[in-house]
Amino acid sequence: MKEIIIATKNKGKVNEFKEMLNGSGYQVTSLLDYPDSVDVEESGVTFVENAILKAEAISKHYRKITIADDSGLSIDYLNGAPGVFSARYAGEEKNDAANLSKVLTELKGVPEAKRSARFHCALAIASPEKETFTVEGICEGMITEKMEGENGFGYDPIFKPRGREVTMAQLPKEEKNTISHRADALKKLEKGIAQYF
Prior knowledge:
It contains five helices and six strands, in the order E-H-E-H-E-H-E-E-E-H-H. The protein has a single domain, classed as Maf protein (Alpha-Beta Complex). It is α/β, with parallel strands linked by helices. The longest helix is centred in the first third of the chain and has 16 residues, at 47-62. The protein is globular. The N and C termini lie close together (12 Å). It is 30% helix and 25% strand.
């Protein structure tokens, strides 16, 4: 069975990838399985650049096929922020609660019509022998006025996907995994992944 390393230590992302790649015939591991993993500085200015940096560095280090994801939330009213700074929007330490609170504070009093936003996901798959392949996925929606839901992670409790009456954090994970930005990108990746091996 061929191993794919998911280049993240984020348990929420790891679980989503494992569920989405379940039955694919690949053994899915992550940096949680590699305690000696290298830290890769995400110095890119786009999601795609950061995904490539992570995928290529981890693939080179372990000599294995690696998928890296860089994703985040872009809010139109905030000129695309938090964008590539989504994970550390409220400060250097990754803190979901602080990030959520900051976004809600910045959008306080902003009418629903101006709360449009989207989750963006860039995936890069890298191998020591092949050229890196990238895809992007998007999930359109809007920012709610308060946090709702216990599922998911990150900005899920304040993001209502287009066509849904509840937040991403209120959706069953099976439904989220069919409409999310990561699912959109992964569907595109799956089309190219077979040729990649």
